[in-house]
Amino acid sequence: MVSIARIRDEYGDNICRRCINRKYHSKLVPDDCQYGYTYTCPVCKKVHNIVVGFSLRGQGKLLFK
Fold it and tell me: Rounded to 5, what percent of the chain is helix, strand, coil?
């Protein structure tokens, strides 16, 4: 299972939903994520909302990743 802690270990505190989808092929939609702030994602180098957690549906989509 991919958790926000595992993602933070790999990428640090700042990563956007699009990069999570690209890395884990998870097909997360905006309602699946909890956002904290807008910042430049270190992976794609674009300004996006930064994911700080996942809803239950989002956690379910990441369960077997």
Answer: 40, 25, 35
Helices (H), 1-65: 4-11, 17-24, 56-61
H-helix or E-strand spanning residue 39: strand 33-40
**Residue 55 and residue 27 in contact, taking contact as beta carbons nearer than 8 Å:** no
Six-digit token string for 15: 């990563």
Which tens digit of pLDDT belongs to each residue from 6-52? 888 988 888 999 999 999 999 999 999 999 999 999 999 999 999 99
Sole residue written with tokens 């957690």:
53
Cα separation, 40 vs 54, in Å, equals 20
